[in-house]
Amino acid sequence: MTADHPGNPCKQCSIPTSRINGRTLRQSPVRRGLLKKADDKSWIQVCPACERRDLFDGRGVALPYCAADGVMRTVIDTEPENVLAVADFRFTRPALDYGVALANLTQPAGTVPTTDSVEHLARHYLVAPSASAAAALTEAVCHWGGGGRVLGNLKRHHAGHLGDVMHRWMQAALAAASDGEAIAQASPQRPAGLPHGLGISFGSKHLRMLDPDRFAVLDSVLSEGLGYALNPKGYALFMRHLRDFHQQLSASGWGHSLARTESGLFVLVRQNVRVESDQPVTPSEA
Ligand SMILES: [Zn+2]
User: Fold this and answer.
1) Distance (Å, rounded) from C-alpha 255 to C-alpha 134?
2) Domain ranges of the chain
3) Edge-to-edge, what's the strand order for the sheet holding 42-46?
4) pLDDT of residue 6
5) 75 Cα–ligand 1 center, Å
6) How far is the CA of 241 from the centre of ligand 1 (A)?
7) What is the whole-number distance in angstroms between the Cα of residue 9 and the centre of ligand 1?
8) Residues 250-273: what's their mean pLDDT?
9) From ligand 1's centre to the CA of 46, what distance in Å?
10) Burial bucket for residue 187 (CB in 10 Å: 0-12, 13-18, 19+)
11) Exposed / middle / buried, residue 189 (Cβ in 10 Å: 0-12, 13-18, 19+)
């Protein structure tokens, strides 16, 4: 959750400084060499006026930062008074738009599957649903989300029939009447529920790939940063708020799917959670 922070006056222009997470600032070619690994979990003090050119990545994407008023902003904001919010988390439209761009950067070949490639695999599953296509999709979703351990657990719990279990749940989830029902855990009464070994985070990663216009991901970062519980009720509440928010944005020419919109929100929220020091530092002092 962003909060107002004092923002020490800039030594050169004396406007209140902003702060940006080191992990995001590392994407700036100007700053990259100055940052240490430890800075990824710190706020770095930055002046959006004097250090404007530092606040872009190598392709001209403006890097979202947390301004002195606690709002996530970019240096190219044209309507600074126009502030959006999900839960009590505040940001500008360009900050969210560039968050989406940063979330969907093409990864170096052979590392993590791209969002596009996993969405493609999910469409393949939907056209010809089968246990083997379901198993292939689960492998891809887990790699995409950095869930090697989740995949290992799933394979252990459902040895020899993981594809069947995933296929049965995904078909039931797509037909579910509500978001809470789509992600409710399997039980003797609900054999087609979310399979044992999958939680809300990786369960919702599957749903988001299967239907990016209906579902989005709720993981521990968004849960912690926005306050939605990682359970079916928390997921249902998050989806209701996100869908309302997305509908309003879409009415004014927002081109991203519900799921991509959430990916941008994730990039903004992530700067604000698990920061080791709440006080912004400059890299030379870190
Ligand atoms: Zn300045």
Assistant:
1) 29
2) 18-103+267-285, 115-215
3) 83-86, 89-92, 72-73, 65-66, 18-21, 42-46, 277-281
4) 65
5) 13
6) 37
7) 8
8) 96
9) 8
10) exposed
11) exposed
Report how far residue 231's alpha carbon sits from residue 24's, in angstroms, rounded to the nearest whole number: 29
What is the amino acid identity at position 243?
R
| Ligand 1 centroid distance, CA of 33 (Å) | 21
184/231 Cα distance (integer angstroms): 8
CA 5 to centroid of ligand 1, rounded, Å: 17
Q: Which two tokens stand for residue 231?
A: 């359970």
Distance from Cα 51 to the centre of ligand 1, integer Å:
7
26-57 pLDDT, tens digit per residue, is: 999 999 888 888 888 899 999 999 999 999 99
Q: What is the whole-number distance in angstroms between the Cα of residue 205 and the centre of ligand 1?
A: 41
pLDDT for 184-234, tens place per residue? 999 999 899 999 999 999 999 999 999 999 999 999 999 999 999 999 999
CA of 12 to the centre of ligand 1 (A): 5
195 contacts: CB under 8 Å, gap ≥ 6: 154, 157, 158, 165, 166, 169, 186
Tens-digit pLDDT profile for residues 88-138: 999 999 999 999 999 987 666 667 899 999 999 999 999 999 999 999 999
Distance of CA 35 from the midpoint of ligand 1 (Å): 20
CA distance 239 to 255: 19
DSSP string, 97-125: HHHHHHHTPPPPTTSSPPHHHHHHHHHHH
Closest Cα partner for 172 from 163, 160, 181? 181
